[in-house]
Amino acid sequence: MKAPARVLRIPSKYAMYFDGINDYASIPRNRSLDLVAGNFSVGLWWVHPGRAGTWVGIVDQGRNAVRDFWVLTTVGGKGVSFGVGDGSTLIEISGPELPALVFHYITCVRRGRYLEIWVNGSRAITRELTITPALGTYPIELGRRSLDAHYSNQYLSCVQIYSRALNAEEVTWNYDNPGNPVKNGLVLWLQADPNNIKDVDGDGVLEWVDLSGFGNHGKIYGATLVGVVKSPARVLPPVR
C-alpha cells in the first residue's frame, strides 16, 4: 500500500524575510556554537520565493575562502547545499530542487565521517568526508554568504543548531512538531514571532532572541518579520 503523502506544516504564523539585497542577521561567536570540529545539526524552516540567487547564504560561518560550515542556496536558489572546510579543502553536498513559496524543513547533519541533508523529515543525500573539518571561530550569519556578502532572498521561520548529530527519529520529530523541537543538544533556537524580536542589550539594534537558553541572539540588519497565513506561503505586510 502506498504511504499517504505528508502534509507540509506551518511552523509559525511568522517568518523573517530577507530581501536578497542587503538583509542579514549576525550571531556573535560563542563557544557553544564552535561546532565544526565535531558532530552537529542545523535545522531550518525555510521558504524560497523562486528567484533567489546562486550560492548565496542561508546560514554561514566563516570569513576565509575555505569557511567553517555553510548552508547555501543551490543553482537557481531552489535547493540547499551543505558543506564544511578544513582550511584548504571544501566538502559539499547539494539537495534536490524544491517548490517555491512552500515551507520546507531542511536538516543538515555532520555525523562522524558523513554529511547529510534531510528534507521534510526524510534523508535526501549523504556524502562521506575525506577531511577533518576546522574548528568554527567566526560569527554565524543568516541571509548572506559572509565570504563575499552574497545575500539570499528567502524566508526563515525557524533556525535550530545542535551540538550533536540528530538521529532519524529526532529529525522526524522536529518536522512533525515545529513548535516543540528536540531540546537535547539544542544551542540555538530562533523562532519567528513578534515576542522574539527585541533589543536585548539596549544598543538600538533589534535581535532575534535565542530560545535555547545559550543567549545566541541574532542581530538583525534589515531583515523584516512578516506574517504567514498558510503554506504555500502567503505573506502579510511587515509586522511593526
Can you describe what's shown?
The protein has one helix spanning 168-176; strands at residues 14-19, 24-27, 40-47, 57-61, 69-73, 80-85, 90-94, 104-111, 114-119, 122-128, 140-142, 144-145, 150-151, 153-162, 186-191, 197-198, 207-208, 218-221, 224-228, 235-238. It has 240 residues and is mainly beta. It has one domain (14-238): Jelly Rolls. The strands form 3 sheets. Strands 1, 3, 8, 9, 10, 14, 15, 19 and 20 form a 9-stranded antiparallel beta sheet that branches.
Fraction of residues in helices? Answer: under 10%
Number of helices: 1
Which range does the strand content fall in?
35-45%
Encode the helix/strand succession as letters: EEEEEEEEEEEEEEHEEEEEE
Mean pLDDT, all residues: 84
- Our count of domains comes out at 1
- In the CATH scheme, the class would be Mainly Beta
Count of DSSP strands? 20
Largest sheet: 9 strands, antiparallel
Q: List the uncertain runs.
A: 1-8, 231-240
- From the helix content, strand content and strand pairing, which structural class follows? mainly beta
Q: Radius of gyration, rounded? A: 16 Å
CATH topology-level name: Jelly Rolls
CATH architecture: Sandwich
Question: What distance separates the N and C termini?
Answer: 49 Å
The best one-word shape is globular
Topology:
Elements: E1 14-19, E2 24-27, E3 40-47, E4 57-61, E5 69-73, E6 80-85, E7 90-94, E8 104-111, E9 114-119, E10 122-128, E11 140-142, E12 144-145, E13 150-151, E14 153-162, H1 168-176, E15 186-191, E16 197-198, E17 207-208, E18 218-221, E19 224-228, E20 235-238
Antiparallel strand pairs: 1-14, 1-19, 2-11, 2-18, 3-8, 3-14, 4-5, 4-11, 5-6, 6-7, 8-9, 9-10, 12-13, 14-15, 16-17, 17-18, 19-20
